[in-house]
UniProtKB/TrEMBL annotation:
Region (Disordered): 49-89
InterPro entries, sorted: NepR
Source species of the chain: Marinibacterium profundimaris
Pfam families attached to this UniProt entry: NepR
Residue span(s) of domain Anti-sigma factor NepR: 17-50
Official protein name in the record: Anti-sigma factor NepR domain-containing protein
């Protein structure tokens, strides 16, 4: 059976199989290569920076939780300034 006799669906499937096989063959060696040191070092730096940011965020969250809530004390003043409280209410 020649390629001309094959139905379009079968021809497309055969072409996909050939493409897949060729791509696997071409990139198989690349998959086996180690990651270059410069990328490994960069990833380590990024992880360290991310870890530092997380710990600093956690410290800030703890400080905010311990801080007095100034907004509650200033709410009547802010409402008066915004026109929300009228006639002493």
């Amino acid at each position: 059976m020649s390629a001309e006799d094959m139905p379009e669906k079968d021809r497309a499937a055969k072409m996909e199989q050939l493409i897949d096989a060729n791509l696997k063959r071409a990139f198989n060696d690349v998959l086996k290569e180690d990651v270059p040191d410069r990328f490994t070092n960069l990833l380590a730096e990024l992880r360290a920076a991310e870890s530092k940011n997380r710990s600093s965020d956690n410290e800030q969250s703890a400080q905010v939780a311990q801080a007095p809530n100034v907004m509650e004390d200033d709410a009547p003043v802010a409402q008066q300034q915004a026109g929300g409280v009228r006639n002493g209410r």
